[in-house]
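Handout, section B. The chain below has 100 residues.
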Amino acid sequence: MWCPPIGAQGLNMSLADMKVLHDLAVARPEALGEAPMLDAYARKRMPDIRARVAGITALNRASMLSTPLLRDARATALDALYGVKSVRKTLMQMGLGAKG
């Protein structure tokens, strides 16, 4: 899956990929690179990857709005989110991979 470079999510996703692969390799080093291990990796990572790509896609599309009314609505919504410290902190933690 392709991921545009918004909020360093590509880096965060890569780090999460490496953690899952590391955990699988430590648990069963003899199975390194075998189909069952790669299937386990895909099962563990795909929900997070799909959610992040969907969120990034939504943000990317919102950033390309050109209609003044929609552009102003986006700016107002982002200002409101940024203005609520608990929401801003939660969004940042989610971006870093913290579990909800």
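Note. The chain is about 75% helix and 0% strand. Compare this with the example in section A.
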